[in-house]
Specification:
The chain has 1 helix and no strands. The protein is mainly alpha-helical. The longest helix has 30 residues.
Length: 48
C-alpha cells in the first residue's frame, strides 16, 4: 500500500479528505479480503 500524498488534500475540506482516506482504506481491505478468500479456496478441496 502506498501512502496518499498530503499535497493531494491541500485545499480540500477536512471531511472530503477523511472521506477519501476512508474510501482508500476500504478498497485496500476489500482487495485483501478477496485475495485471501481466493487463496483459501485454492487450499481447500472442492465441497461436492
Amino acid at each position: 500500500m502506498q501512502p496518499t500524498p498530503v499535497s493531494e488534500f491541500r485545499g480540500v475540506a477536512h471531511h472530503e479528505a477523511i472521506d477519501a482516506l476512508l474510501s482508500e482504506e476500504f478498497t485496500n481491505r476489500e482487495t485483501r479480503r478477496v485475495s485471501m478468500a481466493l487463496m483459501t479456496a485454492k487450499l481447500l478441496p472442492p465441497s461436492h
